[in-house]
């Protein structure tokens, strides 16, 4: 499947609600209680995969770190979303990939200062090619590639630049074997005018607080939490959702 050209296709908010079981297939019935598992059937099982890429300070052409956060909708079928989706935060799997060659250079150049992301247990130090291979694998199978079960993926980014950087990093040919439904851009969902607002500001505006251990410093986790928070607000507290968007215009 070719990489989708639309970052936020028409009707995608409804599709997000359907994938998360917060809306019926017709869109006429919405879940009404955030503190009970939704009785509505999901559109399909998908993997929500959020990504964040950081380039190296000394060479912006080199990707130093890739942060990933994955939510499998199969794992939340019997869980209540809770306030701003926080009931699902504990199901988010996370991984940070660091270019081991750049990390070694950073140590040499800065007297032992490590690249961001080398501390958490979820971090893997890999060669550049192994990093790319693992990202490709996650986009096809999630974190459990040994099952060899190709999954539908809903990609989540905070802005269009992130996806463009990802395309440049992996090249478009890498996505021919993936099944990406569409890309959810949290920056566009947060501000109707498409105004460039920071991830931190979006989190503050929509009252999405960090939940789940180990997410400190992993921007992909924050991006996925923001998306879940906005979809839940749009479902259960529509007025607050639009008030938040108005503040970011």
From TrEMBL:
InterPro entries: Gfd2/YDR514C-like (IPR040151), Gfd2/YDR514C-like_C (IPR048519)
Source organism superkingdom: Eukaryota
Ranges of residues in domain Gfd2/YDR514C-like C-terminal: 48-230
Pfam families attached to this UniProt entry: DEDDh_C (PF21762)
GO cellular component: nucleus
Record's protein name: Gfd2/YDR514C-like C-terminal domain-containing protein
Organism, scientific name: Sphaceloma murrayae
Taxonomic path: Eukaryota, Fungi, Dikarya, Ascomycota, Pezizomycotina
């Amino acid at each position: 499947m070719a990489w989708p050209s639309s970052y936020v296709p028409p009707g995608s908010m409804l599709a997000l609600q359907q994938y998360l079981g917060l809306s019926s297939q017709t869109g006429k019935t919405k879940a009404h209680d955030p503190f009970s598992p939704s009785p509505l059937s999901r559109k399909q099982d998908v993997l929500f995969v959020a990504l964040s890429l950081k380039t190296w300070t000394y060479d912006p052409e080199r990707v130093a770190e890739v942060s990933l956060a994955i939510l499998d909708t199969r794992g939340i079928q019997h869980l209540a979303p809770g306030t701003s989706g926080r009931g699902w935060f504990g199901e988010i799997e996370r991984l940070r990939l660091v270019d081991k060659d750049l990390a070694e250079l950073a140590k040499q150049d800065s007297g032992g200062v490590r690249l961001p992301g080398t501390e958490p247990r979820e971090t893997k130090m890999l060669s550049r090619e192994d990093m790319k291979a693992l990202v490709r694998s996650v986009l096809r199978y999630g974190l459990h590639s040994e099952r060899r079960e190709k999954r539908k993926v809903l990609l989540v980014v905070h802005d269009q630049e992130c996806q463009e950087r990802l395309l440049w990093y992996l090249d478009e040919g890498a996505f021919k074997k993936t099944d990406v439904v569409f890309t959810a851009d949290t920056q566009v969902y947060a501000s109707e005018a498409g105004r460039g607002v920071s991830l931190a500001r979006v989190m503050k505006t929509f009252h999405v607080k960090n939940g789940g251990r180990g997410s400190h410093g992993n921007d992909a986790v924050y991006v996925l939490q923001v998306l879940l928070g906005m979809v839940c607000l749009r479902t259960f507290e529509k007025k607050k959702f639009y008030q938040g968007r108005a503040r970011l215009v």
